[in-house]
Amino acid sequence: EPNEGELACNTFGKGRMAEPEEIYQYISKYFQKKKILSGKRILLTAGPCREAIDPVRFISNRSSGKMGFALAQAAKDFGAKVTLITGPTDLLAGPDIHQIQIESTEEMYKAVRKEFSRNNMLIMAAAPADYKSKKIAGQKIKKDFNDLSLELIPTVDILTSIKSIKKKNQIVIGFALETENGEKNALAKLKNKGLDLIVLNMVAEQTPFDSDTNKVTLMYKNGQKTSFPMMSKRELAWQLMEKFGELM
Ligand code: CTP
């Protein structure tokens, strides 16, 4: 990132080239990543899901997929074999990452179930839709100026479905996106979904959607907690992957 300071155009702001020493430190740190995940297979999900209403409309959410993609890259940097199942995003995974494109929560569910058994770890960073339209109209729903109600039914909960097929040596990590009672809600998800670890992301403190930075707390099933300060998603992904790796 550029530094802040006096600029050539006589204004002050973010736009100065980072000091060569800083660039050197960053690059050497990048290339010195220890291959702590070598020989491990990691399955990740990222991005939103889309639930069709009719041929031209869908229900979705504001997930950008950036955190999941950064984690996939970090896992790769640490030497893991990475499969990334992703909903529609503008992002492209690196060349050594096996990317599987899906749209709906049902498709993500099927892909996760197909891939899970050959992986050492599942990281569910995606934001599946919680509800879908009960009926998908075959033709575009026309505007008739009356109120329109959609009947919604729950989608399958992917993590909960993994609970019964998870082997002892497989690690499952979830994310909790909360606007209130963060720790209480995250703990309930950790327990109900049978997770080893949950990453708590509070929307109230910042807007994580589409942002390049994030601030999270890790909550382990043994009650341990670790908080990370606000940092770039790329840096955070490296730090999180180091912690996730310790679980294996
Ligand atoms: N998740 C899932 N299947 C779903 C919905 C969510 O596996 N159908 C996963 C997410 O990928 C995340 C975790 O469950 O890792 C928690 O997701 P979150 O949206 O925070 O919570 P929900 O379980 O959907 O509960 P609520 O929306 O009520 O907070």
In summary, what is this structure?
With 248 residues, the chain is α/β, with parallel strands linked by helices. The chain contains six helices and 16 strands.
Explain what you see.
- This protein has 248 residues and is α/β, with parallel strands linked by helices.
- It is 27% helix and 27% strand.
- The chain contains six helices and 16 strands.
- It has an eight-stranded mixed sheet with strand order 7-6-3-8-11-12-14-15, sandwiched between helices. Strands 1-2 form a two-stranded antiparallel sheet. A two-stranded antiparallel sheet has the order 4-5.
- Helix 2 crosses helix 6 (233-246).
- The longest helix is centred in the C-terminal third of the chain and has 14 residues, at 233-246.
- The radius of gyration is 20 Å and the shape is globular.
- The two termini are 33 Å apart.
- 32% of the residues are buried.
- The model has no long low-confidence stretch (mean pLDDT 93).
- It binds cytidine-5'-triphosphate.
- Residues 105, 124, 126-128, 130, 155, 157-159, 174-177, 189 line the site of cytidine-5'-triphosphate (CTP).
What's the arrangement of secondary structure elements?
Layout: E1 3-6, E2 12-16, H1 20-31, E3 41-46, E4 51-54, E5 57-59, H2 66-77, E6 81-86, E7 98-101, H3 105-116, E8 121-124, E9 131-133, E10 152-154, H4 158-162, E11 171-178, H5 182-192, E12 197-202, E13 213-214, E14 216-220, E15 225-227, E16 231-232, H6 233-246
Parallel strand pairs: 3-6, 3-8, 6-7, 8-11, 11-12
Antiparallel strand pairs: 1-2, 4-5, 9-10, 12-14, 13-16, 14-15
